[in-house]
Design goal:
This protein is an alpha+beta fold. It is built from 5 helices and 6 strands. The chain has one domain. Helix 3 runs antiparallel to helix 4.
Amino acid sequence: MSDPRITHIELDEATILWRNADIEQERRIAIYDLIEDNSFKPLRAWEAGYTGPYRLKLAVSDGRLAMDISDEADNPLESLLLGLGRFRRPIREYFAICESYYQAIRKATAQEIETIDMARRGVHDQAAELLVERLEGKVETDFPTARRLFTLICVLHIRG
């Protein structure tokens, strides 16, 4: 029976140099939501006969996203490297908007918070669409999964 989804996700702790409570909360929520509901079908592993579920480890090195995909017993299935050059701007914009959002939560009006949150969701959505595009031919995934993965890619880019 096929089960094309992620059941365990790990971020390379050596990649994450710094995080505050807001970012840590975003990370926890993204991982929880991702594990609860996702669609993830790595095409090479699938074609080789492994139909899920999957374990995923994410790391960033030399401007590339490393995605190590394993089976449930943590046996390696495949590794993907994605250049992150096209994500630099969305990541920078997302960080800037998130910072404004976290500050607004503490002192802004509900309308100001809603406006900032709409901008944040817009950047997040565009980056998720880009991720789906960049994974094309490598991993079939849905938009909500790509959105949560983008959140985790951002967490891996925090430098303090």
